[in-house]
Amino acid sequence: MMNNNKPEMKSWITGCWSPVLTTSTPNSGSESDLLQRDLINERKRKRLESNRESARRSRMRKRERLDDLNAQVVQLRKDNRKTTAEIAVTTEHYVKIEAENSVLRAQLTELNHRLSSLNQIIAFAESFEMETGQGGGGADYGGGDSGGDEFYDGAMNPLNLGFYNQTPNMTSASTGFGDVPNCW
């Protein structure tokens, strides 16, 4: 649509029709007007070129940033896989150590139980010696050189104690009727 004073022109920047003001002066074709239009057109062209170059640099920066981020993602995934593998190895090692510790704890409990039993046996043997007055301080609990045929395995055998093999002295507790013990 054309109006006498305001003809419409399609803008090459926006692609829309917009009114363009033109003035009809008798000297519209003068050289100064042409120079001024050329100067305006040159400024527009330089601005457009500058904007295009700026947009190109911006796209390049974005592309470089995207490439850097992609490289970082690749590196982080590698690190993640490595860390996951290390965690798996460490977990496996931990489970093995925990199993060994469990066995050692069970052995410790068993050895403490055995030690307690042996201490009870020793305490019983010492109290028996004190009550009977036998032993003379160097009691043979089945492992010494008592001259007997007992088997000695280097440890105290609670089922083969030497004081069980000794015959009790019953003469002091006798009734006077020979060797019959006083059972009353």
Automatic annotation (TrEMBL):
The keyword Hydrolase does not apply. This is BZIP domain-containing protein. Keywords: Coiled coil, DNA-binding, Nucleus, Transcription, Transcription regulation. SMART domains: BRLZ. GO terms for molecular function: DNA binding; protein heterodimerization activity. It is found in: Nucleus. GO terms for cellular component: nucleus. Residues 45-114 form a coiled coil. Its main location: nucleus. Pfam families: bZIP_1. Residues 41-104 form the BZIP domain. The keyword DNA-binding applies.
